[in-house]
């Protein structure tokens, strides 16, 4: 199975990461400490740190992965988790990764402070990498998160949003961190600028594909696999790729969105319309296009290398697509 192969390569590294995360973000205040422990005990896919380690393993060749690469992997997961805490407050999610969200367990104030605390901790560890280029690359992601949230908030229930606007928002909210993580790992491996840029673009298109598949799961996925209730994004007025594709063929769907699902049955009817139409297939096709672009960007082809880390980077695309199969 693809997921087992990818994560088996970095299993030992991710086990170390999981142990380090809670100690890295330990807070003096008991409430913040409890929030941090709750967040990281929930687990998650750990795709972002896995990519950092895979890029490191391939670019370093036969050398041992450095402590700086491992720390970057940890930083990316802390940043990602911080963004989820704030997202959950904005979206009013009750569960995430299958467990109760921080703001539901405590309150909004604690959740916002916990997210801020995690961002601050990640910035401190990032500065201690003593690599200015990596600091610039990763810190830009935090501003991208904020811009993505603002953009999303301004276009809720807006039927005029274009696919390009959706893609830009998806970049800021998801692909930016994955792109920067891959590039940052290549920077720590001291690759030349052209190769660093390639890993950035690889991560960008993998990140966009990942977001599109996540948006498909919002329509069709089970609560168990998604980690939050099905239809949450649509109910909040976040019009994603499958919805945008489906709107063109369904005046009824447009009407539900225009009236912001005012009746109790509207959201379930809207989900049924999307599932019956071509929106899901077109969204999946778009995700596959991004994955193919990412593979074409990789600095080497699988046929010219037997490197397991490179092979895993290629398989990441299949892993993303398998989430909806």
From TrEMBL:
<comment type="similarity">
    <text>Belongs to the FPP/GGPP synthase family.</text>
</comment>
<dbReference type="GO" id="GO:0008299">
    <property type="term" value="P:isoprenoid biosynthetic process"/>
</dbReference>
<dbReference type="InterPro" id="IPR033749">
    <property type="entry name" value="Polyprenyl_synt_CS"/>
</dbReference>
<dbReference type="Pfam" id="PF00348">
    <property type="entry name" value="polyprenyl_synt"/>
</dbReference>
<keyword id="KW-0150">Chloroplast</keyword>
<keyword id="KW-0808">Transferase</keyword>
<keyword id="KW-0479">Metal-binding</keyword>
<dbReference type="InterPro" id="IPR008949">
    <property type="entry name" value="Isoprenoid_synthase_dom_sf"/>
</dbReference>
<dbReference type="InterPro" id="IPR000092">
    <property type="entry name" value="Polyprenyl_synt"/>
</dbReference>
<keyword id="KW-0934">Plastid</keyword>
<dbReference type="GO" id="GO:0046872">
    <property type="term" value="F:metal ion binding"/>
</dbReference>
<keyword id="KW-0460">Magnesium</keyword>
<protein>
    <submittedName>
        <fullName>Prenyl transferase</fullName>
    </submittedName>
</protein>
<dbReference type="GO" id="GO:1901663">
    <property type="term" value="P:quinone biosynthetic process"/>
</dbReference>
<keyword id="KW-0414">Isoprene biosynthesis</keyword>
<dbReference type="GO" id="GO:0004659">
    <property type="term" value="F:prenyltransferase activity"/>
</dbReference>
